[in-house]
Amino acid sequence: MIRVPLWILGALLLGGIVHLSTVLAMPMTATQDAYSRLARFAPVNAVVQLNAPTPQDATMPFMDPAFAVAVCRYDLSAGALKLRTPLSQAYTSVTFYTRNSVAYYAINDRAAGRRTIELSLMTAEQHAEMPEEEDVTSADRLIIESPTKTGLIVLRALAPEPGLMAVVRGTLAAAQCRGEPQPKL
């Protein structure tokens, strides 16, 4: 009599373990992740604007048609990266993702406090090798440490009205994502 509930409990526990391990392993085994999809037309360490989504076609899933989107596939193996993007009139955000699509940092125009979002992206090792400058504070230079050497930076700018999309796309066209020269010690 007690065996049937134990078998049911064991089956449920085993099913839960299999389900959880499958869900956690799926991002590591997916072949059509964002980084792979964008590799076809987005060069490394350069900002590329994505086409506006349509009901029949979207570069990435769940894209909002009210936002202009640009991406930068980065590779920090040659050195740090300098990102500079002007702010749009309504709203601008920058989100950093690892190669496996895990978001690890985000900043928007409200947090930037300036007319542009300007920052340096580097690994922890590259950050440790930087020379200390006594006259430069963290308010002067924003440094983001990437947990991986490759990943994505996604820039989004809101067009509050459809007629302003061209202006917002022009703002994102001025964004720069380029390698920084390595400091000489």
- Unreliable segments of 5+ consecutive residues: none
Number of helices: 5
Number of strands: 9
**Strand content bin:** 25-35%
H and E order: HHEEEEEHEHEEHE
Short description, anyone?
The chain is of the alpha+beta class and 185 residues long. The protein has helices at 3-29, 34-38, 109-112, 124-129, 165-173, and strands at residues 47-49, 67-75, 81-86, 92-98, 103-108, 116-123, 143-146, 150-158, 176-179.
Characterize the structure shown.
By secondary structure, the protein is α+β, with helices and mostly antiparallel strands. The chain has 2 domains: 1-30; 34-179, Immunoglobulin-like, CATH 2.60.40. The protein is 28% helix and 30% strand. A 5-stranded antiparallel beta sheet has the order 1-2-8-4-5. Strands 7-6-3-9 form a 4-stranded mixed beta sheet. The chain is globular and about 70 Å long. The protein starts with a helix and ends in a 6-residue tail after the last strand.
Write the layout of secondary structure elements.
Elements: H1 3-29, H2 34-38, E1 47-49, E2 67-75, E3 81-86, E4 92-98, E5 103-108, H3 109-112, E6 116-123, H4 124-129, E7 143-146, E8 150-158, H5 165-173, E9 176-179
Parallel strand pairs: 6-7
Antiparallel strand pairs: 1-2, 2-8, 3-6, 3-9, 4-5, 4-8
